Amino acid sequence: MNKRVLVKFSGEALAGADGYGIDTQILDYIANEIKELVNNNIEVGIVIGGGNIIRGVTAAADGVIKRTSADYMGMLATVINGVAMQEALEHKGLSARLQTAIKMEQIAEPFIVRKAQRHLEKGRVVIFSAGTGNPYFTTDTAATLRATEIDAAMLIKATKVDGVYDKDPMKYEDAVKLDTITYDKALEDHIKVMDDTAIALAKDNKLPIVVANMNEKGNLLKIIQGDYSKCSIVK
Ligand code: UDP
C-alpha cells in the first residue's frame, strides 16, 4: 500500500505540562509515530501550529500589536516548531525537509508544491511551516490547503481526544463520540476541533478529515490501515 497523508499537530501538542514551549520528549514521541508510518511506505506531510509560542488573536487582544503583525508572529512560531520537528525526525533516522510559506532561505526551503511532491515520493517527510503565509488564517486551514495540494488521501488532525463528540467530552461524562460526521453537519455545529474555513475547504475538495487521538500509541498507523475506532471522520 502506498498512501499519502497529511498530519496536523497543534503547537500546544508540543508543549509540556506548562502549555508553553517545546518538550523534546513529546517531539520524540511524535517522531516515533511518524517513523512507523514511513516504515509502512506511507508518504507523510506535516503541518504544525504555533499556539505553544504565540497566537495572533491573543497577541493582538489589547490593541498594542496589530492583528496582521501578530499573525505574522504566529506564523514565525510555526517555523520554530517546524525546525524542532525536522530535528526530531532526523534524530530518528528519517529524512525530513522543512518548507515555509514565508521565504527564509537560511532556515527552510520555500514552499514549492512540485518539490514537496518529489520529496514525498522519495520517502522524505515534508513539514509545511508558516501556515498559509497569510494573516487571518489558521494552521488547520493551512493543513487542509497543503493536504489538497499534495493530493493526500486524508488529513489527520492529531488531538488529545478520540474524535468529535456530541458535546464537550472534557465537561460532560456522557458525551458520545461520533464515528462519522458530514461536512455540512460539522459546519452547522461549528465543531470545536476544526475551524469552519478548514472544513469548507475540505468539503470543496472532498478531503476527508480524521480527528484522532495522538496520545494513543500506534493510532495514526491504525487509522491509515482502516481501524477507525479511536477517531472521527468528517467527510
Ligand atoms: N497563522 C496565520 N496564518 C496562517 C496560519 C497561522 O496568521 O495561515 C498565525 C495565527 O496568528 C495563528 C498562529 O499563526 O494564531 C499559530 O497558528 P494556530 O493558532 O493555527 O496554531 P495551533 O492552534 O494549531 O497551535
From TrEMBL:
GO terms for biological process: 'de novo' CTP biosynthetic process; UDP biosynthetic process. Keywords: Allosteric enzyme, ATP-binding, Cytoplasm, Kinase, Nucleotide-binding, Pyrimidine biosynthesis, Transferase. GO terms for cellular component: cytosol. Allosterically activated by GTP. Inhibited by UTP. Residues 3-213 form the Aspartate/glutamate/uridylate kinase domain. It is found in: Cytoplasm. It catalyses: UMP + ATP = UDP + ADP. Pathway: Pyrimidine metabolism; CTP biosynthesis via de novo pathway; UDP from UMP (UMPK route): step 1/1. ATP binds at K8, F9, S10, G11, G51, R55, T159, Y165, D168. UMP binds at G50, D71, T132, G133, N134, P135, Y136, F137, T138, T139. Its main location: cytoplasm. It is an enzyme of class 2 (transferase). The keyword Glycosyltransferase does not apply. One of its GO terms (molecular function) is ATP binding. Coiled coil: none annotated. InterPro entries: AceGlu_kinase-like_sf, Asp/Glu/Uridylate_kinase, Uridylate_kinase, Uridylate_kinase_bac. Residues 16-21 are annotated as: Involved in allosteric activation by GTP. Signal peptide: none annotated. Belongs to the UMP kinase family. Catalyzes the reversible phosphorylation of UMP to UDP. Homohexamer. This is Uridylate kinase. It comes from Halarcobacter bivalviorum.
